Each structure stands twice: as C-alpha cells, then as structure tokens.
Amino acid sequence: MLFKVQDISKVYGSDIVLKNVSFQINKDEKVGLVGRNGAGKTTVFRIITGEESADSGTVEKLRGLKIGMLDQHVDFEGQDSVHTAALSAFKRLHDIEAEMRRIEQQMADHADDDLLNRYSDLQTEFERNGGFEYTAKAESILLGLGFDKESWNSDAATLSGGQKNRLGMVRLLLSESDVLLLDEPTNHLDVNAVEWLENFLRESEGSFVVVSHDRYFLDRTCTRIIDLDNGNAYSYAGNYSSYIGQAELRREQQQREYENQQAVISKTEAFIRKNLAGQKTKQAKSRRNMLQRMERIEAPVKETDGGTFRLDHVERTGTHVLTCEDLAVGYGEKALAEGLDFILLRGERLGVIGGNGSGKTTFLRTLLGHHRPVRGKFSWGTKTRIGYYSQQLEELAGSNEVIGEFRKVAPLAENGEIRTFLSRFLFFGEDVFKRVEDLSGGEKGRLSLAKLVYSGANVLLLDEPTNHLDIPSREALESALKEFPGTIIVVSHDRFFLDRIAGRILDFKGDGKIELCTGNYSEYHDRFLSKRGTVEPQRNIPEKRTEPGPETERSAVPSFSKNEIKRMEKRVEEIEEALPRLEDELNVLSVEMSSPETALDADLFRDLSAEFEKREALIRDTYAEWEDLQEKLG
Length: 634
Hints:
This protein has 634 residues and is an alpha/beta fold. 45% of the residues lie in helices and 19% in strands. Among the domains are: 245-293; 320-532, Rossmann fold (3-Layer(aba) Sandwich); 551-633. It has helices spanning 41-49, 82-87, 91-109, 113-128, 134-144, 161-173, 191-203, 215-221, 240-275, 281-293, 360-367, 402-406, 415-423, 441-454, 471-483, 495-501, 521-532, 551-554, 562-593, 596-599, 602-633; strands at residues 3-12, 15-25, 30-34, 56-61, 67-69, 179-183, 207-211, 224-229, 232-237, 320-331, 334-345, 349-354, 375-380, 386-389, 459-463, 487-491, 504-510, 513-518. Helix 3 packs antiparallel against helix 4 (113-128), helix 9 runs antiparallel to helix 10 and helix 19 packs antiparallel against helix 21. The longest helix is centred in the middle third of the chain and has 36 residues, at 240-275. It is flat and about 130 Å long.
C-alpha cells in the first residue's frame, strides 16, 4: 500500500461533495479518477496532499511517501532558463555536486582522511541517486513534451501559461515521486506530446492517479478506474472503456437490490400497521425493530444528463458545401499551412488535428472571412448557413445575464420559450439570471453551444468544442453531432471524440505541410502516425546545380583544370545525394532520443545524444564543403 483514503467526507455549505469515500492505491498501480465536474476529484487530491482537510475520515500514507502533484498555477520566477528549470527537480543532486566540487578544491591544497571519506560518501550517494544520468533524462523528457533544443536557453519566467504548465509537467516527471497525482495533465499538450506522455506513463514503473476528461488517454494509460458518483467512490478493474460496461452493470444490480428491499419494506410496514394493536403485537414490534436496524440500500442515481444538444431542423445545403483550391492560410505573406485542395460534401464531418501554432484555428477563421488567404481560394456552396464555436468563447459578453446573452440569437422569442430551451443545456431556474462572467468554463461552453444550436446553422465550424465539457456533456454533444444532418468541420485534440464524429482527418503537420485522409482518428493513426512516429522533417537541401553556363563564364576560375572541375562537379552531386540520407538519419536519432523508453534509460540517451551531435557536425561540415565547391565552380 502507498496510501489509503478511509471514509472521507467533505461538505461545502449545503453541498455534500464526498460521502464516506474509501479507496487504496498500491505500488505500481495506474489509476484513473473520473466523475462529473464538481464530483470532488480535485478535492480528493487536495485532501491527500494535505492542502485541504476532510470533515471526517482519514488518509493513511506509507512512511516517507513522496507524492508529486502539479500545481494549478506553475511559475518559474528566478529560473535562468528552461533547461535549468527542468534540472531544478534534482536539487539534492545539485547540492551534492556543488559540495563535491568544493571538497575537490580543498583536497588540491591538502587531502586528509576526513575530506577523503566525506568525498567518497558524497560520490556514492551521487551515483546511487542517478547523478551521472539526470541531465540526459531531463533532456529526453524536455524533447518528449515539446521543448526542442533551441528553446532550452529561453527564459522560463517569460513562457506562456501553457508552456509553463508543460515545463511544470517535465519537472514533475523528473521528481521520481512514489506516486503522481495528475489533474488534467493533457490540457496544454498537443497530440504528439500527449501520445509521448501516454507511452511514458504506461512504461514507467511508478504509480499514478490521473483526473482527465480525455477518454482516449484513460484507455491507453490506466488499468483501474475509480468513479466518484453521488459522493461515493466505486472501483473498477480495467481501462475507461471497460469501466463503462461495468458501471452500467453495477447500477442495474443496485437497482434490482433496491427494488427488492423496497418491496420487503413495504410488506413489512403493512404488516406492522395491521397488527401493531392486534393479536400479533409482539411480531409487529419485532419487525419494526428489524426495519430500524436494516441497512438501507440507496437507490442508484440515474446517470446525470449531460444536456440535450439536439441539432435538427436545418435547411438542406447544396451537394458541394466547401471547395478549397490550392489554399494557403496564415498571416500576411507567411503561410502556416498550404496545399489545401479538397471538396467537402453535404453531411461530411472533417476532423482537424495538428500541433499548437500549426494553423488550425487560422484555417477556420480564414473560412469565416476573418483572415485573407495567403494564396489560393475557397468558396462556400449554396444555401450554407455557418455557425462558429470559438474555443476562447470570446463572443460571450461577461456583463450579460445568461438569458440576455442567449437573446442575441433569439431577439423575438418569449422568455418562457428561451428558458425551456436553455434547460436542455442544464440552465434551470435562477441559473438563467447568472452573469456570464460568473459562469464556470463548462457553463460558458454550454451557453455557446445553446446559441449555436438555436441559430439553425447547417454548417458547423467548431474549434475545440469539448475543452470545457465534462465526460457526460461530451457524450451528449457527440450523440447530437452524430444525428446532425448538416456538415461539420471540427478542430479537436480529443481523439475519442474524433473517433466518434470524424469521417475524414485533416492533419496540420507544421512547416506548412498538411495531410488529408479518409477515416476517423484511430484509423489515421494506425495507417500513418504509428508507422512514421514523427512529422517529416523540414529539409534544407541545396537546389540541384544547373548546367554550366557559357565558356566565357567559366573563365572566371582559370586556375582549375578541366579534370579538377569535373571532380568538383562530381563531388557536388555526391553531396546533394548524401544530404537527404544524413538528415533522415539525424531525424531517426531525434525520434529515438524523445521516446519514453529512452527517457527511462540515461545511458542510452547519452549515447544517442553523442551520436546526434556527431551527425549534426557532419552535416554542417558537408554543407560547408558544398558551399566552398559552389564558390570555386562559380
């Protein structure tokens, strides 16, 4: 056992958040903690770490247990660089190393037994705690979570909020904690970094408990699910998909047991009423005592509704909804993505994926007319009515009440009609009079979706629509989109969502490249990403040299004979053929260095890093030779 939560209860005002919650986490367990927003998942984490106290119950921990948890707001004030911030996870090793250096200086003047013994003890501790491998391990994890070598010298304090959270995750993974508490660890990661983290967690020997709305992530990393449901905790063996079926069976069984007990209670109460004052008074009193002692089975709570996002009754568009012809999107003359050349037909669902800054949102905003195409063109088909959902939710006015904000799309509707419609999105009673700025992220997301549904759009452009939704709300949205008769373009990093919705995948790969394939995310991943393992590297191959000009142009280099010129031209061709191969080999090394397996093997990373530097030097020297030859050849 690493730690055990025993009969934990927590109440905020009149809200019972946790009710006698109990579970145990053992060594090497990989656990997902799930439940609706407000179910108490983060509260459980805070009670385990001691940041918050329970109203009742206990937390028992293994003596000396080291728990690692990522702070909600990560900061790096005073850190020199990204690289230094990552290495700060090894403060003890730094201190040991610094003391060893001081002793070495002292021993240069005089070496007594005390100094030698102290140095030997420090060296043993340094080696036992991975002192010769920690830098290599840190650099491998930096690469895996999206910090390339060029960013390592950047000032950590000036990073964006998302980058700071990623760097905080790097430091957490390096902390070598006995158990990690991970609260939405994928929030600030692109798909490549999420998949790297999945592999790292799956292959590491440590334990973790993860709170996540990313069902794909839970499926690939967890071997046990704990469900916080109506204040209680229920444990299920297996991953998220396995849990779904087991949870439904548990509710059905609990419902049968509840109904059977209620039938017994009803018959017993009828007997008591009939006989309490009659000849069978003694039996009636005995049965009344039995009822009082009976442990009552709770009625299973009906699966909480995630909302009713029904998207129907929209006007039919023409067959060709969107046509892109050699479209390039970006800012000014800079193209973030180019070569967009396809036709989207009525009823199709296009899922858009890619790394941060690769141009996904810019693509949507170009289609909306907010940005001009860098090159090429696009056109919408007939009878298209476009609805847009922004991940930033910037169209919501914070000072408005919910009902007033909704009235933007329903200016003539009666209040009763609006309130009935908003109830489908879980805004009940006085909720409609809340100010938008006081809503949670999930509530703002539901309000934006409510406006979008009411608008009657037949083409939906959705930018990360699941970002602020809990799992039941995501499932409700998925069901609605599957039934939607119109056309959808959706940017999302939620791979489970894309598997259920998308029929084509458009991958913004970075460096201006895109790839368009038929199928959902898993089909695309299995066919392409799992084989390649990385984005094709940007090449910087010199253009093939054209044929020599007139002999008068050659006269500028009269010091070389015809044979020497031929040898130089042949060498130029050899270099131009060799450079793609050398850069491919360098890319393979980069992929190996950023893999989770390498992060766990410091010796391997050090060897790969040394080889990487040799190959980089070889490529630099080869380019220098090519430039020198070109200059000599004129």
